[in-house]
Design brief:
- The protein is an all-alpha fold.
- Helices cover 55% and strands 0% of the residues.
- The protein is built from five helices and no strands.
- Helix 4 runs antiparallel to helix 5.
- The longest helix is centred in the first third of the chain and has 17 residues.
Length: 107
């Protein structure tokens, strides 16, 4: 005798567990992403200038933008601000990590 409600519950259970253990943003992963992807032009650390003077430091960006909204903006895509700046979109995990790291630069 089959019990559809038990089968349905078993099918949904892995989704509930994965939601409960959803990955939170990580400042260390965000910093690593910034150093790998952005540091050629931007100053991404807690001090120092940007290698490209036209590119603001991440400290400046952290103070200029509401960080809570920034992850959504990074996922939707950022259009170039100057000729050397590429258009880009981040996946949600990278955006969460990067914004978590930017929060550490506001201190």
């Amino acid at each position: 005798m089959r019990r559809p409600h038990i089968i349905a519950a078993l099918a949904v259970f892995p989704l509930l567990v994965s939601a409960a253990f959803a990955r939170e943003g990580s400042a260390s992963r965000g910093e690593a992403f910034a150093r790998t992807t952005c540091a050629r032009c931007h100053g991404v650390g807690s001090r120092g200038a940007s290698p490209m003077p036209e590119a603001p430091t991440f400290r400046t960006l952290a103070g200029r933008f509401p960080i809570d909204d920034l992850a959504d903006i990074l996922v939707e895509g950022v259009e170039r601000r100057h000729p050397a700046m590429p258009d880009f979109r981040l996946n949600p995990l990278d955006a969460d990590d990067l914004t978590t790291y930017l929060r550490t630069l506001r201190r």
